[in-house]
Specification:
Elements: H1 7-17, E1 23-28, E2 39-42, E3 51-56, H2 63-76, E4 81-85, H3 91-100, E5 103-106, H4 109-117, E6 137-141, H5 152-162, E7 170-171, H6 184-188, H7 198-203, H8 227-231, E8 233-239, H9 255-259, E9 264-267, H10 272-277, H11 298-313, H12 317-339, H13 342-355
Parallel strand pairs: 1-3, 3-4, 4-5, 6-7, 6-8, 8-9
Antiparallel strand pairs: 1-2
């Protein structure tokens, strides 16, 4: 298992060094930054025309942000460059690579991050085993950043609030986006063309909605939480970082329900479930309609997710319990696949194949 805070110094810097003196590796510190001022440069190579390997693997590729960065990067380093991302079959990556003459490579950074961050929880005693749980709610749906590129979470919340599903389920939603400090009123106004009643729908809900014991919508990416809420819920609604565009980009968020042994519904790009299955995990299409994963239009896809959550919420307590018990074989497979080393073996083969491309 790789410590994710050491993946560059332990794996990538030695690999680039092995290519010769005219090769350098670059990544961002602090994690999550894409600022040129936060760029790491190891090994330091003074040759202007050296080949550079840029690890844009923590954050999704936003073309506008990427192009602003590359204007500075190309001015400082004039050689042939490579970009390494955590986006699979990504049109944005293809576009910026063609624009800047980059050779692109892929590995799943967030898979390695989850293996590191969530290690040891298989020995914890924070939740009942799956076959001993009593299901009382339909879903748990945490939401923190709701502005900017994360506005797809407002689409999900619209369908949740419109059906009143927040009343008997575990839902969090800030009144002000903690990343951009933008108010909910300003965030939903641009969506009124898509949802004419969105202001009325959101006005009916007293925001912020906090999970029990929480305030201020804390960042919890690197640990597992909400144990008591998850123990009584049928599904976990994973509102991913990216939900639009022709690409696959799942983060550590998808591994929270896997490690906490709860079924999941994924608000991500089209094909996100198929992408996850490609790494050996299973999903729940035998138990409910997962055809939303095939819908290319984000607004329509999220509307179908909203309809699915409404349908699941309409089940009786005994029906929800029965459905959860039917999901246990899939839940257990995913949990064991993550913690047994099988998933890490797949990631290792993928990583070795990527390094062979350098």
């Amino acid at each position: 298992m790789i410590r994710i805070d050491e993946i560059y110094n332990q794996i990538f810097v030695p690999a680039v060094k092995g290519l010769g003196a005219e090769h350098g590796a670059h990544w961002f510190d602090p994690p999550g930054s894409t600022a040129f001022a936060d760029l790491c440069n190891r090994p330091r190579v003074s040759i202007p025309t050296a080949q550079r390997y840029l690890f844009w693997d923590q954050e999704p590729v936003d073309p506008d942000r990427f192009n602003r960065f590359m204007s500075q990067f190309q001015a400082a380093y004039t050689g042939h460059h490579h970009v390494i991302t955590s986006e699979y079959r990504s049109k944005p990556v293809e576009t910026v690579s063609a624009q800047w003459g980059l050779q692109s490579h892929y590995y799943w950074f967030h898979g390695w991050a989850a293996l590191d961050w969530y290690r040891g929880y298989d020995r914890a005693r924070l939740i009942r085993p799956a076959d001993q749980r009593r299901i009382e709610q339909t879903f748990v749906a945490p939401n923190r950043i709701i502005g900017g590129a994360r506005q797809h979470r407002l689409h999900v919340l619209y369908w949740i609030f419109r059906a009143g599903l927040e009343q008997n389920n575990w839902v969090s939603c800030p009144a002000v986006c903690p990343a951009e400090m933008t108010t909910m009123a300003d965030l939903i106004e641009p969506l009124s063309g898509t949802y004419p009643d969105i202001v009325t729908v959101f006005d009916r809900v007293a925001l912020p909605l906090d999970m029990p014991g929480e305030s201020g919508h804390p960042m919890t990416s690197c640990w597992l939480d909400l144990w008591s809420q998850i123990e009584t819920s049928l599904v976990y609604v994973v509102t991913e970082t990216v939900a639009d565009g022709d690409r696959q980009h799942l983060t550590e968020k998808i591994f929270k329900p896997i490690c906490q042994q709860i079924p999941f519904v994924v608000v991500g790009t089209a094909g996100a479930l198929a992408y996850l299955r490609g790494y050996g995990f299973r999903t729940f299409g035998d138990l409910w309609d997962e055809s939303y994963d095939n819908e290319p239009d984000m607004v329509k896809r999220i509307a179908r997710i909203g309809a699915l959550l409404t349908d699941l919420n309409g089940l009786s307590c005994s029906e929800r319990q029965d459905l959860y018990e039917q999901a246990i074989p899939v839940v257990r497979h995913n949990y064991e696949h993550f913690y047994s080393g099988a998933f890490e073996h797949i990631l290792s083969a993928e990583l070795d194949a990527m390094l062979a491309e350098f």
